Amino acid sequence: MSLDFLHWAVLGGLGLAVLAGPLGSLMVWQRLAYFGDTLAHGALLGAAAGLWWQLGSGTAILLTGLMLAILLLALERSRLLPADTLLGILSHAALALGLVALALTPGARVNMEALLFGDLLTITPAEVAGIWALAALGLAILGRYWNALVAITVQEDLARVEGIRVDVLRAGHRLLLAAVVAVGIKAVGALLITALLLVPAAAARRLAQSPEQMAIAASFLAALAVGAGLGASWWLDTPVGPSIVMAASLLFVVTLARRPA
């Protein structure tokens, strides 16, 4: 029996893990869990839009995520409501609107289980290439602006005084995060993609002594979770996405035994 599909699943998962480390670390520092959830819940709306616009689901989810990220940035700057309240409202509104839109789409055929919980074992070589292209682009951008992003996280006002273009970098970071969430839905699903970004980073926080060490450790732990989750799914016949997140959660529990560095 050919196991090519498993090889592609491993490669796709590792490509996502490489970028999840530094992005997840920034999410932990900036407390962006709600932001990630809002983008992920918008995937349902993207799937419905793909059916209406006759686009591929992946393309539609990516475009919807980018547009939603731009909307969130605009609303955050307006300061109409506290950020966590605003994101909580939009997160559930996007989820509800997506479900209603799917229900109203004539002849809609959407694999809801795969959309919600991921379907990494069905990933195609083209999708793997797309993940690694995004990972290469994302790492290049993060490498170029890493110090500035960390500075914004630590003290935004001081970063502005030092001439860092805070609003531009924040927008770029949010758009990159939206792209990763949209692509990562294939691996662990809309309900769990934020966990794949946050849990390895939270575990790495207890092992690292610098932002760079935390980002690298988070990528390593995410890759380990992908491998362990795929192995568990293969041997125990469990869903891939939840298995990967459970593996990441177990790694986090293990790190609790170690005092923070």
List how many beta strands DSSP finds. Answer: 0
Number of helices: 11
Looking at the structure, what is the overall shape? globular
Runs with pLDDT <50, length 5+?
Answer: none
Q: Give average pLDDT, whole number.
A: 86
- Distance from N terminus to C terminus (CA atoms, Å) equals 46 Å
Computed over alpha carbons, the radius of gyration is: 18 Å
Structural class: mainly alpha
Q: How would you explain this protein's 3D organization?
A:
- The structure is a single chain.
- The chain has eleven helices and no strands.
- The chain has helices spanning 4-30, 33-53, 57-78, 83-104, 112-117, 125-154, 156-161, 166-188, 193-205, 211-236, 240-255.
- Helix 9 (193-205) crosses helix 10, helix 9 (193-205) runs parallel beside helix 11 (240-255) and helix 10 crosses helix 11.
- The radius of gyration is 18 Å and the shape is globular.
- By secondary structure, the chain is mainly α.
- The model has no long low-confidence stretch (mean pLDDT 86).
- The longest helix has 30 residues, at 125-154.
Keywords, separated by commas or semicolons:
261 residues; single chain; 11 helices; mainly alpha; globular; 81% helix
Put the structure in a nutshell.
The protein is mostly helical and 261 residues long. The chain is 81% helix and 0% strand.
